[in-house]
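FORM 7B - TANDEM STRUCTURE REPORT

SECTION 1: FIRST PROTEIN
SEQUENCE AND TOKENS:
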Amino acid sequence: MATAYNKTQRTDELCKSLRNIFITGASGCIGHYVIEALLSEPDLHLYLLIRNRGKLLLHWTDIQGGRVTLVDGDMLTIEKHEPLLKQMDMVIHLAAAWGGDDVARAVNVTKTLELFNLLDRDRCQKILYFSTASLLDRDNRPVEVASEAGTAYIRTKFEMLMRRGQIKLRDRTITIFPTLVFGGDEFHPYSHISSGLTDITRWIFLIRFFKAEGSFHFLHAFDIAQVTRHLLMSLVQTGDWVLGNPELHVNDCIEQISHYYDKPVYFRIPLPVRFARKVAPYFGARLSPWDDYCIEHRYFTHKVVNPSTFQVPTQFPDVNSILKKYG
């Protein structure tokens, strides 16, 4: 079973023969897949910062010989774990706050910097920090408008990106930018995209007769975990990595979904951008300034990597593989 971290535990009693990995955001969709991938590495001991144990599925910890330790707490009180953080060889920072300006800035910026700067420079070998590809343009450069029009999440993630120079271990920090994330099943929490896929497939009988401008990348959390494990265990020490399968045009995506469900496409009616704005409220969507920006700049194209970049098999390389899992 997973063990609980005891603050009175002597540091010389921590696992000496294993490399210690501190992971935040472990109870999320990507977190579950990352933990599962890392448990295949026999020389790692995983310390999971957990705010709510009820959200963590522990089926894979029962057979891992005590190589998983649960650390009760959250990012807002990360300083309480300084003694433990000094013992970490690597860190994977997945946790993020989505709503509320004060909390988002505290978690996504202030406490993130504090977490990184509590690490022992003489011991910690590598930091993997998860950001979001929403902040980047087609050349993987930060988009300045994110600092103004973005949601609290987007604005604070942009601020953290701009403040990476304040990380004392900047020379061994890898930043990961996921694109759209699919993932989830009975053993893993569902991502927001996977949860909403049912609504898309339900309306495909109608959607197939429209066409719209736009493109995007996606990657399944399983494949994100494979890249994460590679970057953690390889000689890569720094860099920015945008994760995604090759660019997919919206119309091609609709055609592939239609074909999967045997729904012929006889004609396509162009869907103006202004129409999307008008129908959004009928689907319960309230458009923010950031939503408006994304609608106007709807080609979300980046220079991406995925497992195949590193000669690792990609389990979910296309729409068809996603539909086989969730359709």
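SECTION 2: SECOND PROTEIN
SEQUENCE AND TOKENS:
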Amino acid sequence: MAIFECRLEEAVAAPGHYVFPVPMDTHEQKITDIGFEDCQPKDTIQDRDGSAKAFLFDLKEGQSACVRLTFEEPGPGLAAAFFVARDNRFERPSQALIDQIAGQFDTIPLSERVPMLIQFIADHFTYGRRDVTLGDEDEAMPALECGLTPGTCVDMHTLGVAALRSLNVKAAYIMGCHVSDARSEYYTGHCWMNVRHEDVPHHWDISHHVQYGVRTITPVLNPKPGRRFALSVGRGRVFEGVEGAVEFPALSGFHALDGSLKGEKLKTIGRFLDA
């Protein structure tokens, strides 16, 4: 047994409703218990399409919050429902991307195509922040640019999921936290991919390979040694609040559903504890 703890870095600056994702089982974790400190959820709510859940908190100004997730290793794998394609701009491949991927890999057996496609994506990126995150200003995920372009884990894995789905391969965007061996805690917010296809390894982290200079992508989650915890699946999650609908690009900690911080993520610290 182990515990992954998520807590606010600072007390809440403005009162309101806040959400925290209800975590799921993966190949690496099986959730056995969920506890709370300095807060208690008033409800559990679902997003607009009913495929994600979040704890709903009513927090006061100056209040702290902490969620402790007890889990076993390994886990049973990601449920099939999380691989159902959702039609939003983050998960929808553009026709240009569909044509690009088909032109590159159309004649190769599918089980071979997946790792080749993942390598193809990595070969188009250097690690770095873009002025605009991929998907933020598009109606669908665009084709890969010629040459190398900067991107973070968000850019690489959002595009990766859309590209895999253009081949009808089941893929999921996983958001959580990576705590390296050199640290005791770190901010939540790292992402990777999960693939569900016969004869294809299930987990891939393109960005960690690229970031740490490993240009050959393998199904190893930690080119940089450490541990990770998955908190949510998918992008473009829409929840209904008292002030209307709010879209979160992804859920990776405490997020404001209404009030003056509406739509923002609060800095959330993650760390592993012995149970």
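SECTION 3: OBSERVATIONS ON SECOND PROTEIN
The first helix runs from residue 95 to 105.
The CA atoms of residues 124 and 148 lie 5 Å apart.

SECTION 4: SIGNATURE
Preparer initials: ____
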